[in-house]
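Example for tutorial group B:
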């Protein structure tokens, strides 16, 4: 395989994320890509805005991948924000239950930072996309039943909009794919520009 190219002769694409949701979203576009899981610590810096945090982590994920020159690397990070507080992945079922109780009946923001890097260090784009999600009022029984499924434990904000968690949501304003983990609507023009995909 030529350096920086896929088997079809297109520029190679690497997804610097182990998220099954992101893999599914890219696969739905018909893209050929490799997955390299980054191990960047997702630590929020004091005074850092939520969108800046998501953008920084996405870029750090992309930059952590060592590959052939010219290869395109996509990094992304999705966070849930309520009243300025960032909700990452819950540590356990107790914390998942707490997150969902706080989100119950309220509108929060889902921010996905994304970065496209052309290896080794050419940053093509580093932005953040924001959607708003309004939860239905949730009883403790509903929360307990959902947490018991195990679905919330590896999701930012302790829910999956594409899974059983969709039943908790009253409405989504903005990109639903962004809430799932990747605003592909914003990425498609970049993929086309870089020759990764054609319409």
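The residue assignment follows.
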């Amino acid at each position: 395989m030529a350096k920086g190219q896929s088997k079809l002769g297109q520029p190679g694409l690497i997804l610097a994320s182990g998220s099954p949701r992101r893999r599914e979203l890219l696969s739905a576009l018909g893209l050929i890509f490799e997955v390299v899981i980054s191990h960047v610590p997702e630590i929020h810096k004091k005074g850092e805005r939520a969108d800046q945090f998501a953008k920084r982590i996405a870029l750090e994920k992309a930059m952590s991948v060592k590959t052939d020159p010219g290869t395109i690397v996509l990094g992304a990070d999705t966070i849930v924000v309520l009243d300025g507080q960032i909700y990452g992945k819950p540590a356990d079922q107790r914390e998942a239950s707490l997150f969902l109780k706080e989100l119950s009946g309220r509108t929060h923001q889902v921010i996905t930072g994304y970065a496209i890097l052309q290896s080794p260090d050419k940053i093509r784009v580093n932005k953040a996309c924001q959607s708003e999600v309004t939860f239905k009022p949730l009883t403790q029984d509903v929360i307990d039943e959902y947490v018991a499924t195990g679905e919330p434990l590896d999701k930012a904000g302790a829910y999956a909009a594409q899974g059983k968690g969709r039943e908790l949501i009253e409405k989504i304003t903005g990109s639903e794919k962004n809430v799932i983990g990747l605003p592909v609507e914003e990425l498609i023009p970049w993929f086309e520009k870089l020759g990764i995909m054609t319409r």
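DSSP finds six helices and seven strands in the chain. Compare this with the pattern of hydrophobic and polar residues in the output above.
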